[in-house]
Amino acid sequence: MSLDRPRARPLVVSALSDPGIYPHAVDRVELVETHISWVFLAGDRVYKVKKPVDLGFLDFTTLERRRHFCEEEVRLNRRLTHDVYLGVVELNGRDAIAFGGPGPTLDVAVMMRRLPHDRMLDELVRRGAAEPGLVEELGRIVARFHAAAPTGGEIDDLGSLSTVSANWAENFAQTTELPPEILPEEWRRTLRAWAQAFMRREASRFAARVAAGRIRDCHGDLQAQHVCCTEPVQIFDCIEFNHRFRYGDVAGEIAFLAMDLDRLGRSELAMRFLNAYLEASGDYEAVPLLDFYRAYRAFVRGKVLSFQIAERPEAATKARDRFALALRYTERRDPRRLLITTGVIGSGKSSVAREVAARLGAIVVRTDALRKHLAGLALSERRQAGFGEGLYGPRWGGGRTRRRWPWPRRSSTPAGRSSSTARFRRPPSGARRARLRPGPAPPSPCSGATRRTRCSPSGSDDVPTIPRKSPTRASTSCRSIGRDTSRRIARRT
Predict the structure, then answer these.
(1) 103: phi > 0 → left, psi -120 to 50 → alpha, else beta; which?
(2) CATH code where residue 44 lies
(3) 257 lies in which domain range?
(4) Same structural domain for residues 218 and 299?
(5) What is the pTM for the complete model shown?
(6) Residue 3 lies in a domain
(7) Are strands 37-42 and 45-50 parallel, antiparallel or unpaired?
(8) CATH number of residue 220's parent domain
(9) Contact (CB, 8 A) for 64 and 50
(10) Separation between Cα atoms, residue 261 and residue 158, nearest integer Å
(11) Are residues 64 and 127 in the same domain?
(12) What is the rounded distance in angstroms from the CA atom of residue 317 to the CA atom of residue 323?
């Protein structure tokens, strides 16, 4: 580690720890120190000063470099935040520091609006206050972000298999000196052999991801602690200091947050997030790579935490836990299963499928969503059409939709992962069609949405009637059905 201006460090820290230095009202200042930054929580503002260090993967040793990366931090983080990153401020002076005062510039800081700590996703998860709908919306937000993010050129190069392989090699090299109580040698050997075998076996898949445009300029550090669940949702603190850590496969980005939710003990929320992202993006080819990238992200977090053990001894246990989590992703999963739900419009099949999938760790594939992706329609777009018409007519149905199925001509799903799919029943035909008549439609028990019409057999009493329920009661009903269904499936397997 090298330092530029050895005397500047204590001067900056002591100066910004004084509430009176700030150009706005501040009662007290809280300092949060990381291995690369000093962060000052001052009233309704946050000031982040980069440490003048060279760690190999980043170099902040000169004022010019710190200014550049502060400006990059503001520019890049504005992609997923609104009115949070306010700009870069100068810290001037000779014997004393002032914001934009006289004298030479001693350092610079990123100025941010302070976000409520109790609305951070990791805090909500710990309190049991993170609702499924919240993480599903987060999945859709990230999908839209990735769809608009740059790709090609250097971005593709840094997302290629050669870079992925080099990143793994760097991880192992940087952790060779860790004691066995942090990273046992058996764990290291298992992870190295598993990662190398996976990359050899799936080389063509990594190449296909590049060709398909799935390598993007991502966030790079999508942890639960970097998501503030306000209105709108704010996703902050992306990687600005090294393109290699930010450019990559979108599968690696979503795997990061999924891993973090697993770490927090809420794997069902991880599946909710993943399924919402996959449905919004249509990128089901990411699924076979998810455990690979989750193991990678867990290992990186373990490595980063191990770097902090000297200053924070409590980080040792956390580092070991992350390495153990990485090892867990190398284990074989339960046997593959394919679950299919069918029913008329609004009967709750998709809601139940999502609930079951979250509990079983399964991927949900909605044929309705596949049809809309094929037709180039937004998933939220609704088209009124009768049975066998529009998206459910011969143009978009049948073999064309089945060919879009994510894992064709295989034993149903990749890598031992279960799958759940929701689809409509085929429209009735012949004599049965003649017996059907339109009737008034009650609200769906699972979504609270209202159907315009429903078909019920004329004169028949054996078709169950769905009771009217509020959205809250409907959601509870779906959770209950999903819980019971997943339990029955678990007992049978």
Answers:
(1) left
(2) 3.30.200
(3) 119-328
(4) yes
(5) 0.81
(6) no
(7) antiparallel
(8) 3.90.1200.10
(9) no
(10) 26
(11) no
(12) 10
Tokens of 483: 């819980």
Q: What percent of the chain has pLDDT over 90?
A: 61
Question: Do residues 278 and 258 touch, judged by C-beta distance below 8 A?
Answer: no
Same domain, yes or no, for 257 and 354?
A: no
Give me the residue label for tokens 């090299």.
Answer: 173
DSSP three-state, residue 474: helix
Which pLDDT tens digit goes with each residue over 134-165? 999 999 999 999 999 999 999 999 999 999 99
Q: 182 lies in a domain? A: yes
What is the number of other CB atoms lying within 10 angstroms of the CB of residue 177? 9
The backbone torsions φ and ψ at residue 478, rounded to the nearest 5 degrees and listed phi first, read -65, -40
Closest CA to 276 of 125, 127, 484, 131: 131
Does any domain span residue 2? no
Token pair belonging to 202: 């799936």
- Do 314 and 433 have their domain in common? no
Count other C-beta atoms under 10 Å from residue 98's C-beta: 15
- Give the end of a domain, one of 328, 361, 396: 328
Centroid of chain to Cα 206: 20
User: Could you give the CA distance from residue 274 to residue 291 in angstroms, rounded to a whole number?
Assistant: 12
**Which of 76, 92, 114 corresponds to the end of one domain?**
114
* Segments in 282-348 forming alpha helices (H): 290-307, 315-328
User: Is the separation of the CB atoms in 384 and 451 below 8 Å?
Assistant: no
Residues 227 and 295 in one domain: yes
d(CA 401, CA 282): 13
Q: What is the mean pLDDT of residues 289-300?
A: 98
Which tokens belong to 13? 């820290």
* Of the candidates 31, 34, 5, 6, the residue with the CA atom closest to the CA atom of residue 17: 31
Closest CA to 91 of 69, 65, 109: 109
pLDDT, tens digit, 9 for 90 and up, residues 435-475: 444 444 434 333 333 222 233 333 333 323 333 334 455 45
